[in-house]
Write a structure and sequence with these properties.
Structural class: alpha+beta
Number of helices: 11
Distance between the termini: 55 Å
CATH superfamily of the largest domain: Jelly Rolls
């Protein structure tokens, strides 16, 4: 039987954990279970439900994707210390590729259910891992926006259009809000607490909520209508995401401290809940139930934004 202390060595050596204190690395390593794979054995198939994080302890894995004609294309080979499935730990979803052992392989697994239990218990190691994963998603999202800007060609990013023009608006009924993606896991009290620190406003079509290169003043949650996130260079632009009811925007800068990488404006008349920076930081600390619900909803929103950011790059490449 391999001792429970040994996974800590593999965990500490993985780049994902390089910025975490040693005590938190050890804490996380105690939650991992080991899977042994024989040569040729599948870890998972493309399309399987995804809910967990995997770290290669020893051996080799091949990541493959289905191609037309029932062919499989090998995407990458993973070895000891490599990580896979880190985003499903935040947001679930489906596996986008299959993973098969090329030789006898040992994999360490942190199940999504166990991770969520640790977060609910305010475990410092789990919370530190979540912060690290959120930063990784922010980095990848910004990198995709930067690639889109290069593909759009020469030209400057648009200048800010000025202050947000808005007018106070009533809060929609709770029965409506409870159906929106961001609020589905909220109870009535948590939703009331969130709205208490928000300003509900209406804005007109075309009104700019945040400029590229600017630091947003608020996180904007769409209640009615739609916003859009756009990368622009000169007279060309590409929409990277439509932010409809129950989705949020302008918060990546709050998570990573960098200016906005997109222009955010109203695609159509919209009603928004604006959460100022100080209130956002307090919620994202996840000390209270409302903050934990908010951060869990936001991390799903962020991973969804990253997945959607792949689509406009494909349109520019082949369109």
């Amino acid at each position: 039987m391999i001792s429970k202390s040994e996974p800590a060595v593999t965990v500490a050596a993985a780049p994902l954990f390089s910025e975490l204190p040693s005590d938190m690395v050890f804490s996380i390593s105690r939650e991992l279970r080991r899977i042994e794979l024989a040569p040729g054995e599948l870890l998972w198939r493309q399309g399987d439900a995804a809910d967990g994080f995997h770290l290669v302890e020893s051996g080799r894995l091949a990541v493959t994707a289905r191609a037309p004609g029932e062919r499989e294309i090998e995407l990458v080979e993973l070895r000891s210390g490599d990580v896979l499935g880190e985003l499903p730990l935040l947001a679930g979803g489906e596996r986008s590729a299959s993973v098969r052992a090329l030789e006898s392989t040992s994999v360490l697994v942190l199940d999504g259910a166990r991770f969520r239990t640790l977060l609910a218990a305010l475990d410092p190691g789990a919370e530190a891992l979540r912060r690290r994963l959120l930063n990784i998603v922010c980095e990848r999202l910004r990198a995709r926006h930067a690639r889109l800007a290069v593909m759009l060609g020469d030209g400057a990013a648009p200048e800010a259009s000025g202050d947000l023009i808005s007018r106070p608006a009533p809060v929609p009924p709770y029965s409506y809000l409870a159906r929106l993606a961001l609020f589905r896991e909220f109870g009535a009290q948590a939703l009331d607490e969130l709205l208490a620190v928000s300003e509900v406003v209406d804005i007109g079509r075309g009104v700019e909520v945040c400029a590229e290169g600017a630091t947003p003043a608020t996180c904007a949650v769409t209640l009615n209508g739609a916003l859009e996130e756009v990368v622009r260079r000169g007279d060309r632009g590409v929409r990277v995401r439509l932010v409809g009811p129950g989705f949020a925007t302008c918060y990546v800068s709050f998570l990573d401290g960098l200016p906005s990488s997109v222009v955010v404006s109203a695609r159509e008349p919209a009603r928004l809940a604006l959460i100022p920076r100080a209130a956002f930081d307090d919620l994202a600390a996840a000390r209270a139930l409302v903050g934990r619900s908010f951060l869990e909803a936001l991390q799903r929103d962020l991973v969804n934004a990253l997945r959607l950011a792949q689509r406009p790059q494909a349109r520019l490449s082949f369109g």
